[in-house]
Amino acid sequence: MGFRRRGASIGRVEGRGSVQTIHHRRCGAALVLFAALVANNVFTSSTLAQGGDSDATSSRAAREEAMRAIPWQRMAPNDRQLAQSIVNGAAIYRRLPTRVIDCHPAMFTFLIQHPEVIADVWRVMGVSRVTLDKLGEGAFRGNDGAGTTGVVRFLASEWGPEARNTAVVLADGAFEGKPFMMPLKARSIVLMRSSAVRERNGRYYVTVHADAFIHVDQMAVELVARTVQPWVNATADRNLIETLTFVSNFSRTAEKNPDGMKRMAARLTMVDEPTRTELMQLCGQTAQRYGQVEPNRAGGTMTVAQRGRVWP
Q: CA neighbours within 13 Å on the CB side: how many for 269?
């Protein structure tokens, strides 16, 4: 299940030179929200992406490494027990393609922590019907307006300088609609790791790793999920790439047109005042940080094959 909108859309931020193409055929409301809710994409989408990236895998070795990397001891006991039950019983595991994006590290971390910001940006731009309500610190309730609902919650997180982040996210969601006679329920655990480096051109590049464990409640559907796992993998890979491209474009627009982004931030009525204020400040900081840097290429994402791996 994922929050999505079919077809590419064009979003305009107020101010000159700020038009960005937003590719999000089945993007999540943000990286974390997307990754956590990939479970039912295979069931709710009629056009599954094909292909994949060379470093994406569902191998046993990758799965075991991801399980060891989950910071179990940082979770509350009840959360740890729940996460272990989902991870151990997951019908589908996927290590998504590692991506390297041109992005202000602080902006990247902010958008991961606040997926409601991107959902509201899309609302202002008129490109999505997704709603994402903050339930409390690190918890959100989402609705895509087309039968998909879910709750997303951080179970553990560590936010470091230069986007050196580790987060474990729980998603508990459902899809109600054709072709199913009853609501289809799924739970996911996603491990997200990231870090950034500054290259000789003065720009910062954030490397992102994501591992998804997906448990489908109905056993019959779970067997189907095993059969179509290659298509699930391709869909998840595509969603991650498109979501991170949006994050990179968001950061670069703030760099080039901070005043326009600040005016847009003021229109985010579904975001609380402290978060809006922090976003405005980050837009200014991003522009200042890159003020003396002449970009030598367009923003976007790269595979690890195109650039060196950043995460240790």
A: 3
